[in-house]
Amino acid sequence: MHFKTRFAILCVLLLSQLLFGTSAPAHDGKDLRRTPVVRAVERVSPAVVNIQASKVYEREVSPFGGFFRDEGFPFFQDIFPSRKRRYEAKSLGSGVIIDGSKGLVLTNAHVITGASNIWVRLLDGRRFEAELAGSDPDFDLALLELDVREKLPEVEQGTSHDLLIGEPIIAIGNPYGFRHTVTTGVISALDRTIEGDNGTFTGFIQTDAAINPGNSGGPLLNIYGELIGINTAIYAKAQGIGFAIPIDKAESVIQELVDYGRVKPVWLGISGQDIDQRIARYFGLETLNGILVTEVFPNTPARRAGLEQGDILLSLSGIRIKDKAHYLRLIRNMTRNRNIELVVVRDNEQKEIAITPEEFSRELIIDLAKKRWGFSVKEARESLEVVRVLSRSPADSLGLRPGDRIFKIAGQRMKSQEDFVEAFTRYRMLNSVMMYVARGDRGYHVRLRM
Q: Is 135 a catalytic residue?
């Protein structure tokens, strides 16, 4: 056939294709569009939930206006009690179902903090009232339990121990109340540490996926749709930086939330002091970072690992220790049965020591508080009452007496023994701590010096 004739036939065929729609099979294009990201989102979205928390709180309205402050005049508070007005606030967040048979939902602790009612909505529109199974603000994780009569969709759990920088990831959440919003990106960095108002958080996954208010508690997924982290924070000073709690770290927290409703505090079994210029010169240190070990308690992880009085702790799990307050914040973000590495200076040489934190039990905390601070307490109305003061102790030197009422320690309200345990756990290595104490009708701010 002549070339011009063949060319004319080809033009006619192409024109008829355009006019009458004789295109390629539709499923070919559809398969190309269903990328691994699309398949992962389709598989996981039914397990991603929207969380609405209703928080009812009361604000006291003094009959004297602002003239008499309750912390300065507890006598007037007893005689003329303040009126209370109720308020309600609502917060939105995200979560992911990790066990469909038991109806367990993992989210951030800050999403549900102080909530009186928690509701969970699934992608298919089903709505459940949730019970708080456990929560721990030091890890910013909470576990909710739904009353289920049939198995719910659940996410497939992955691992975060082998993550790669540059690896593509997927985030699903409910930013600003927009349900099931998907963003993608890559892992930008690993083992990030964030210093926040509520503590020090370690081991974060850093990502450039857009994570906005309302995404908190939602899943971070790998390209297979496996759960590798829980989206939890935004770095407010920059754009395109988000953080997630690695799922391997969350696993141990989840188990403690299931067993105890909270994560039990841990310790290594040491006491220490900050590095000053004199100590730095003596040990030949270039900076004032770290802490000097002043005591190693018997039958503790530190003693078994070979730590000694006079050691300088420089870092914990790769994080440089700034001072003893920073050390205590780091320990609060650790769990039992998780091996950590300490970098220690001893005899002008650096060495690494492997150590596993142990539970810092309530009984041990109360006993150490009595020895270090010099007093013990019992619960009283809206306060703690001093029941014993040890002779020649910091409390004795301060003039504390049995019958005194403690309303605050380091700014924290003291209403129960648990509040006291929490305060000592946080501030046990400080050289001094502020307290608000009442004796009779008078209240005083005093400094307990150790």
A: no
Question: Tokens 């205590």 sit at which residue?
Answer: 328
Surface-to-core class of residue 30, CB atoms within 10 Å of its CB (0-12 exposed, 13-18 middle, 19+ buried): exposed
Q: DSSP labels for 402-426?
A: TT-EEEEETTEE--SHHHHHHHHHH
Helix (H) / strand (E) element for 233: namely: strand 226-234
Same fold, 156-260 and 266-359: no
Higher pLDDT: 411 or 240? It is 411
The catalytic residue among 216, 376, 383, 393 is 216
Give residue 274's pLDDT.
94
User: What digits encode the pLDDT tens for the residues 238-263?
Assistant: 566 889 999 999 998 998 898 888 88
pTM of the shown model:
0.77
Q: What is the pLDDT of residue 339?
A: 86
Catalytic residue among 110, 160, 274, 311: 110
Whether 140 is catalytic is yes
Q: Choose, from 99, 136, 138, 140, the residue flagged as catalytic.
A: 140
How is domain 156-260 classified at the architecture level of CATH?
Answer: Beta Barrel (2.40)
Query: Domain 47-146 adopts which CATH fold?
Result: Thrombin, subunit H (2.40.10)
CATH classification (class only), 362-449: mainly beta
Catalytic residue status for 110: yes
